[in-house]
Inverse folding.
């Protein structure tokens, strides 16, 4: 009888330990899954300029998210293609507005990619550090060194990434 009680006590102790360890194992699995999700590329697009005169699509990868003070990703990689869909002298533009951390502030900068070859997509890949948000605008306009003020300020930006 005492051997049976000892085995029963041992079984209860083992099951209690398993129950106590289950949340820790679940948290570890969740942390691993979250880390993997942060570094997995996320597809975006296709997005078009008005009249479908330009098109862009691609992938975005955000790694090393930090939520201590200002939530940012250590590195964001944006890759994809931009394509001009007009036979005229215009170009397709993919304009990215990247908001990043600088001290305790969140300034932004624009990065653009231009393609002026009809229906021949141009590939691109860019990296930014300490990124809070990435937005996109697609335009079709004349070949120039940079996008026009109309492209930059008219219409709405599409959010591709926002640190949570």
């Amino acid at each position: 009888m005492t051997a049976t009680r000892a085995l029963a006590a041992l079984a209860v102790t083992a099951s209690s330990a398993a129950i106590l360890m289950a949340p820790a194992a679940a948290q570890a699995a969740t942390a691993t899954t979250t880390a993997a999700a942060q570094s997995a590329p996320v597809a975006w697009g296709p997005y078009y300029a008005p009249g479908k005169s330009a098109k862009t699509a691609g992938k975005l990868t955000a790694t090393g998210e930090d939520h201590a003070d200002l939530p940012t990703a250590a590195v964001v990689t944006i890759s994809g293609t931009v394509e001009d869909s007009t036979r005229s002298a215009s170009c397709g533009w993919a304009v990215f507005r990247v908001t990043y951390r600088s001290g305790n502030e969140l300034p932004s900068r624009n990065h653009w990619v231009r393609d002026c070859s009809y229906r021949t997509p141009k590939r691109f890949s860019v990296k930014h550090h300490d990124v809070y948000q990435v937005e996109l605008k697609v335009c079709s306009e004349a070949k120039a060194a940079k996008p026009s003020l109309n492209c930059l300020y008219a219409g709405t930006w599409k959010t591709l990434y926002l640190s949570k």
